Amino acid sequence: TESYNCWLQYKRNDSIRPPAYFSRIVINGESQTLKAAAEELKTGISQMTGIHPQVASEEYSNNAITLCSLNNKHIQNIPDLDLLAREINDEGYIIKSASETGTEGLQIIGKTDTGVLYGVFHLLRLLQEGSGTSDINIIESPKNQLRMINHWDNMDGSIERGYAGGSIFYKDGQCTGDARRIKDYARLMSSIGINGISINNVNVHEVETKLITEEFLPEVAKVADIFRIYGIRTFLSINYASPMQIGGLGTADPLDPNVREWWNSRAEVIYRYIPDFGGFVVKADSEHRPGPFTYNRTHADGANMLARALEPFGGTVIWRCFVYNCLQDWRDRKTDRAKAAFDHFMPLDGEFLDNVILQIKNGPMDFQVREPVSPLFGAMPQTNQVLEFQITQEYTGQQVHLCYLIPQWKEVLDFDTYARGKGSYVKRIVDGSLYPYKYSGITAVTSIGMDENWTGHPLAQANLYGYGRLIWNPDLSEEEITNEWVVQTFGHDQEVKETVKAMLAESWRIYENYTSPLGVGWMVNPHHHYGPNVDGYEYSVWGTYHFADCHGIGVNRTLKDGTGYTSQYFEENFGLYESVETCPDELLCSFTMFPILTN
Ligand code: BDP
């Protein structure tokens, strides 16, 4: 059970000196979210201190931990509350302890009930870390608006690129209805600030196509009901050809009035079951998935049609940019898969409706152990963008090898695109501060399954935890995140802490060095992507070549005499990558044919 509870173990810790007011939790409101917050706090305090707090529903109480949201009128004794309120966003919170407010007790105040819940998880984290509670004064808001998780779960119970057992949502073509597991999952995700989860694979097969029909919507709604309590909106991946596969229409053309009407009424039905449904995640015209290209329409035509259907209900369309020709001839050194996403989407900037969000993988290829950052970031000022990471370790050791990905993700977030001059970091694009995006944020393909410890190996939990913390606040350092996770997972033993931290810190670079150094990528076995293979992909159609021969190794992507990929970057980075002198060592084979020197 220790590993089942991940970072929410709430181990007994006698060094915590619980103040008297720990024996009372007062909730100022009726919502299920506030109740869940109180329940979590009660569990945490009981397990850690042995005090069993009573939970009371009252307007206000002095000698207690009070949980309430700002729209509640009875908050007292906090000077400058209005001012504070302006400093947090809708999911933010304030935690103030007795000495700060001049009263006995502690207040956790959110702008919304979800903010209160986040505040509770914050307090519990502090207690697990062994911090005192006497002078807490915290004002906190998430930096990113959409903080998502994508599942690649299939309804037969399998998970595409899953390394931790079967799906927690489905089995044998049905929904599992495993409310306990799903609730614990929601707690874990909420504790790290996740607010949106898509619950089925982006490759939507025949049976999952029906998730948006009345056959399965009642079951999906049960999941959404649990998620909602924890501040999480439910999303579904959809099959672009649904109007044909389940709607009985002869086409899925986005400009066909019947197709549009079909999606409009589908949306109505979905929202009847799930009033706060988040929207659709769409993989279209990618790796044999259907899409608007069949009808000579653009991605914008396709996405906008779905966006119009969801718009009246506040839903969004998250359209993936993982689009490339997966039937390339390896001898054709002109077609460069790395260029594909930019070539497809950049010219469409300005054509998408404002409830469409483009979801862009961190690199131009496919979640390799090391890749350059996708040049699409910053290149579309008028199009909402979400960054996609991969927590599940498809190309990074499949949760059998240790590969701590926080350092990789930090490099991506801190990458300067120069889109608007120096300081145009990826993290400032996806947090919506560089361009005034209506929607933006970060998502990731998750690593969890039915295994007792969720992630196949307990150390792989670090990537899941770190992902949530990092996208809540990309300015957190790797060390802060690691420290938090290690203590909450393994406790306070100094030797254990130092050993685990050192293992995590080095693991990504070590993994890179023994699998695919210098940015060469793809040194894996085809299909399952595990284990080393130098030529596994070299003569296949996927566009993933290293071109190693007696002259050298690597793909020449320069403008001068290569594929020209380098020119998709803004000037400063273009210059950097164009020359072998300035190209960072770890990306040499991504940008140049690195010569093998002979005499
Ligand atoms: C690749 C996976 C494949 C996914 C695809 C995607 O190998 O299973 O379907 O990405 O992101 O990494 O759509």
Automatic annotation (TrEMBL):
One of its GO terms (biological process) is glucuronoxylan catabolic process. Residues 455-591 form the Glycosyl hydrolase family 67 C-terminal domain. It comes from the Bacteria. One of its GO terms (cellular component) is extracellular region. The active site is at E287, D366, E394. Residues 6-123 form the Alpha glucuronidase N-terminal domain. It holds the Pfam family Glyco_hydro_67C. Keywords: Carbohydrate metabolism, Glycosidase, Hydrolase, Polysaccharide degradation, Xylan degradation. Its EC number is 3.2.1.131. It catalyses: Hydrolysis of (1->2)-alpha-D-(4-O-methyl)glucuronosyl links in the main chain of hardwood xylans. One of its GO terms (molecular function) is alpha-glucuronidase activity. Residues 127-454 form the Glycosyl hydrolase family 67 catalytic domain. PANTHER family: ALPHA-GLUCURONIDASE A (PTHR39207). Belongs to the glycosyl hydrolase 67 family. Homodimer. This is Xylan alpha-1,2-glucuronidase.
